[in-house]
């Protein structure tokens, strides 16, 4: 009897262990780049393939490449504003379909590289429109501007590929500025709100709320602004949708999510040091460029190490200060700085020479940061004994977690 009971206990333990392993394996299939989804969708209907390509394009906005992350982000946008969610969906579909029609590289289309610029253009058109939500005439410039991003992406890629640089969001930043310059605040068909520079014309108050003892979603605090800095990458200024967006990044890469929050905090600190309007701190507008700059360097385009981690913090500071400077400059003519600061900063960082250049990952091999930790490659630029000796300990420790 005792032997039978012991055998039953061991069998139950093995069953629970195998069940846990299956659950963990299933969860791991939902993380990272999910390359198996592309193989599964290879022979499926075009509509289903287009949906996956579009969701990857949605996630690409925040430097992720995961269709489930894209679905969570799209749900967050519809949660915050159904009108903004509709515009974002239309933008990513218009740009992706344009890329298919004009015959762009199939790998780029399937990876969502022709969708994220169109989505950002459509979202910013909706945010700056002074005609209010559900203004259907706005769908015309949304579709046209999203489609134009594909042509700019194709033209810029032929130039930037020579230096192995990403096109990033140069098309979005260019198209949205041209659109706002063409229409103007008083356009009878497509009016928009002029952007205000973050530098305060009136004297800032001396009281600044850092955190509330009992936080609520309506609190106006600096801590809340750090969380909103991640959501502001999608022009989302609500707390819970922003947390869902952060969760989507966490699903793709915990390391990238940590750098997203770190960069937003750094950007907020930069805003505090420059005494920007408190509204910019509370709404997350001071943090989103720092978040993008930190993510780009902190494990995505560079192999993660203690050196590149410090490099990512420096990139976040530079992105945040550049954003303040550009916002003050462009705000004088009513234009937003968008993400010019993070885009230019990340591009300059990728052109860096010296010992840090040894950690750079070629564009064709960029994947989730954890993938680079588990399977470190000997990059041609980084095949040095110094790089191996300084990073082996970090790789071993991080590999235990990812």
Automatic annotation (TrEMBL):
Name the UniProt record assigns to this protein: Urea transporter
**Catalyzed chemical reaction(s):** urea(in) = urea(out)
Membrane topology of the entry: Multi-pass membrane protein
Q: Which Pfam families match?
A: UT
| Organismal lineage | Eukaryota, Metazoa, Chordata, Craniata, Vertebrata
UniProtKB keywords: Cell membrane, Membrane, Transmembrane, Transmembrane helix, Transport
Protein's organism: Gasterosteus aculeatus aculeatus (three-spined stickleback)
Q: Where in the cell does this protein reside? A: Cell membrane
Q: Name one GO cellular component term.
A: plasma membrane
């Amino acid at each position: 009897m005792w032997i039978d009971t012991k055998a039953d206990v061991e069998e139950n333990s093995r069953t629970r262990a195998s069940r846990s392993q299956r659950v963990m394996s299933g969860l791991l299939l939902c993380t990272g780049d999910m390359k198996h989804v592309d193989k599964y969708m290879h022979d499926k209907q075009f509509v289903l393939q287009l949906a996956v390509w579009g969701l990857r394009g949605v996630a690409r906005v925040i430097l992720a490449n995961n269709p489930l992350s894209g679905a969570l982000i799209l749900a967050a946008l519809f949660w915050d504003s159904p009108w903004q969610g509709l515009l974002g969906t239309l933008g990513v579909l218009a740009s992706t379909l344009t890329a298919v029609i004009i015959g762009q590289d199939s790998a780029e289309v399937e990876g969502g590289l022709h969708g994220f610029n169109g989505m950002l253009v459509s979202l910013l058109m909706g945010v700056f429109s002074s005609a209010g939500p559900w203004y259907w005439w706005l769908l015309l410039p949304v579709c046209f501007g999203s489609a134009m991003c594909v042509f700019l992406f194709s033209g810029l890629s032929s130039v930037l590929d020579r230096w192995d640089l990403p096109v990033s969001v140069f098309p979005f930043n260019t198209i949205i500025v041209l659109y706002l310059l063409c229409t103007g605040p008083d356009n009878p068909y497509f009016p928009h709100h002029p952007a205000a520079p973050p530098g305060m014309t009136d004297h800032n108050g001396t009281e600044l709320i850092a955190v509330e003892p009992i936080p609520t979603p309506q609190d106006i605090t600096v801590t809340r602004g750090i969380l909103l800095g991640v959501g502001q990458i999608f022009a989302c200024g609500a707390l819970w949708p922003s947390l869902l967006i952060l969760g989507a990044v966490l699903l793709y890469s915990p390391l990238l999510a940590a750098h997203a929050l770190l960069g937003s905090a750094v950007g907020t600190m930069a805003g505090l040091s420059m005494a920007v309007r408190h509204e910019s701190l509370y709404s997350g507008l001071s943090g989103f460029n720092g978040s993008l700059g930190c993510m780009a360097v902190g494990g995505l385009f560079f192999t993660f190490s203690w050196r590149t981690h410090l490099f990512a913090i420096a990139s976040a500071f530079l992105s945040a200060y550049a954003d303040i400077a550009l916002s003050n400059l462009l705000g004088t003519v009513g234009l937003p700085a968008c993400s010019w600061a993070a885009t230019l900063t990340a591009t300059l960082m990728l052109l860096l020479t010296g010992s840090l250049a040894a950690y750079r990952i070629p564009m064709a091999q960029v994947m989730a940061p954890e993938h680079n930790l588990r399977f470190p490659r000997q990059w041609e630029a980084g095949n040095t004994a110094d790089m191996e000796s300084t990073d082996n300990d970090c790789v071993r420790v991080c590999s235990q977690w990812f």
